[in-house]
Amino acid sequence: xxxxxVTTVSSNGTYSFSxxxxxxxxxxxxxxxxxxxxxxxxxxxxSRVAQDPTQPNLRQVHLIQAELFDEVAEAGFEVAPGDLGxxxxxxxxxxxxxxxxxxxxxxxxxxxxVTGLRNPCAQIDDxxxxxxxxxxxxxxxxxxxxxxxxxxxxxTGGEVRPGDPIAVELPAEPHRPLDRV
Length: 181
Known about the structure:
MOSC_domain, MoCF_Sase_C, about 15% helix, three-stranded antiparallel β-sheet, alpha+beta, 13 strands
């Protein structure tokens, strides 16, 4: 599995679908992105809080591969980094193919452990009508394929900037494929 690059970082202190791009973000161990509305030890996504506010936050950091934006552009959808609410936009790594437990070293210090797939919701169609069909599909076996990025928890904090390298450390075998979190 090759290494990649951080292309964009984004965060928002208030609930909104998209997140503004930033010159850098700071990841905080066990919490997420400093100042971001989804940072915390327990769940912050509104639907999860409604179910059980004491659940551990397995969605501290949201990463999307820039290659998804290239793919949806071919279908006529203009989507920019941060538009889908991700914190880190990457290039050069097939994030969706990573197994659960993969560690991503972002820049000099930060380490994020991959917990699962983002489950895209209908808000994506509110952002761009018809986009949901582009980021959720079915494979040859009829299984649902979620393409709107992956989620992770911060193991080691640090500053992350566009241009930072991303090193991929796969977990021990047997690998477990990503599932929605």
